């Protein structure tokens, strides 16, 4: 804890993960933290990938420091996008709070560094998705950018127009785009493909997505099998139902030009929805962009991080799409993180109110209840 009379020290280092352009602090949120009594240190160049200069942070009241150690090592609160390395975590002050997409279970060394340093780690992917948490929901804000970019990648790869065009050379029919999975990324993909003028269909196992897809101008793809269960949750399909759904999807894909896959199940590998046989049945020149590549892919042929071709069908598995829209992705991420960090800052001091479920349910390792 910072000495009495001093503000809470907030530290931000340049992201080290390859290809990561986002930053967890923007000049806007830096200014807000300083106004709340915090002392903010940011590593030189930390915002460059997102178009934010050192000078802008200085003007926002931040101290720009030469390296990551100077930004982090005596910080009370560390803000990040992806987790710092185990070595960087081990160098932090004991008991410091760390807020970001920390994925502590994905790396044993990182997890061990968090527990040995007795860090208060808040992996934001664990944040409960309640109404109050919406302003802090980094999964939603970043998924919005990913869904948007996925459609633009598909439009770029497709050897056709998305909109209908009436030209002197005749009429061009609009592309048929299918969005698989209609969560936050999928709905943004529906909206984006629609804006580009495509004929858009969406599909999800949650029946309430029908209305959401339709409200964005898309058509709900009905595969004749409803997974509607009790209390608004999807139920497990029987083997026969699943087989029937797959058969109908395979038939449908023969007439689709572009597929954007966004279906995920939290904490699990992505469900395999598009088989190699279905891809073989698609028209040459069709494109699949598989956003679920991060967790293995919805398409059997997806190679995470690669774009391949199979029988004339292009299958792309782009990773970390939110980073490719780093300016707006960082603006949203930094606001989410500021809103979460505000729960830890009371009267300019660092405090953990474990009666607040947003803190208690997000912190890792899990707190014993009772
Ligand atoms: P996600 O990224 O975990 O999954 C994306 C979508 O894939 C989901 O809609 C899911 O139903 C779908 N899916 C999973 N398996 C599928 C399959 N086999 N076939 C077709 N689709 C499949 O989801 P997300 O975007 O993070 O959001 C999921 C849910 O969380 C939504 O209900 C959303 O409304 C809700 N949410 C709530 C809040 C909030 O209230 N604060 C915020 C964000 C999201």
Automatic annotation (TrEMBL):
One biological process term in Gene Ontology: NADPH regeneration
Catalytic activities: NAD(+) + NADPH + H(+)(in) = NADH + NADP(+) + H(+)(out)
Domain Alanine dehydrogenase/pyridine nucleotide transhydrogenase N-terminal: 11-146
This protein's GO CC annotations: plasma membrane
Keywords, comma-separated and alphabetical: NAD, NADP, Nucleotide-binding, Translocase
Enzyme class label: translocase
Domain Alanine dehydrogenase/pyridine nucleotide transhydrogenase NAD(H)-binding: 155-317
Cited SMART domains: AlaDh_PNT_C (SM01002), AlaDh_PNT_N (SM01003)
Family: Belongs to the AlaDH/PNT family.
Record function comment: The transhydrogenation between NADH and NADP is coupled to respiration and ATP hydrolysis and functions as a proton pump across the membrane.
Name of the protein in question: proton-translocating NAD(P)(+) transhydrogenase
Species of the source: Lysobacter daejeonensis GH1-9
């Amino acid at each position: 804890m910072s000495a009495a009379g001093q503000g809470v020290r907030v530290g931000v280092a340049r992201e080290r993960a390859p290809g990561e352009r986002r930053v967890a602090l923007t000049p806007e949120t830096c200014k807000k933290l300083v106004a709340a009594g915090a002392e903010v240190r940011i590593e030189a160049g930390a915002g460059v990938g997102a178009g934010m200069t050192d000078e802008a942070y200085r003007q926002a009241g931040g101290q720009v420091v030469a390296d990551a150690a100077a930004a982090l090592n005596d910080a009370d609160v560390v803000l990040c996008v992806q987790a710092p390395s185990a070595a960087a975590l081990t160098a932090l002050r004991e008991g410091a709070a760390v807020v970001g997409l920390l994925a502590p279970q994905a790396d044993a060394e990182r997890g061990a560094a968090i527990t040995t340093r007795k860090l208060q780690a808040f992996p934001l992917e664990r944040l409960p998705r309640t109404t109050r948490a919406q302003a802090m929901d980094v999964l939603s804000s970043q998924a919005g950018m990913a869904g948007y970019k996925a459609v633009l990648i598909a439009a770029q790869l497709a050897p056709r127009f998305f909109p209908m065009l009436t030209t002197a050379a005749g009429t061009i029919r609009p592309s048929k785009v299918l969005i698989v999975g209609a969560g936050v990324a999928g709905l943004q993909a529906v909206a984006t493909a629609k804006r580009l003028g495509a004929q858009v269909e969406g599909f999800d196992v949650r029946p309430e997505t029908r209305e959401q897809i339709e409200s964005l101008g898309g058509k709900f793809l009905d595969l004749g099998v409803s997974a509607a269960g009790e209390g608004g949750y999807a139920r497990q399909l029987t083997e026969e139902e699943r087989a029937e759904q797959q058969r109908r999807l395979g038939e449908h894909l023969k007439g689709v030009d572009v597929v954007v896959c966004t279906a995920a199940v939290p904490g699990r590998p992505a469900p395999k929805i598009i088989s190699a046989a279905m891809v073989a049945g698609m028209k040459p020149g069709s494109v699949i962009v598989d956003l679920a590549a991060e967790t293995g892919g919805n398409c059997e042929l997806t190679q995470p991080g690669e774009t391949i071709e199979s029988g004339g069908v292009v299958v792309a598995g782009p990773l970390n799409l939110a980073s490719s829209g780093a300016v707006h992705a960082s603006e949203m991420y930094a606001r989410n993180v500021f809103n979460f960090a505000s729960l830890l800052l009371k009267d300019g001091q660092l405090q953990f109110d474990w009666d607040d479920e947003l803190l208690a349910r997000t912190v890792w390792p899990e707190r014993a209840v009772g």
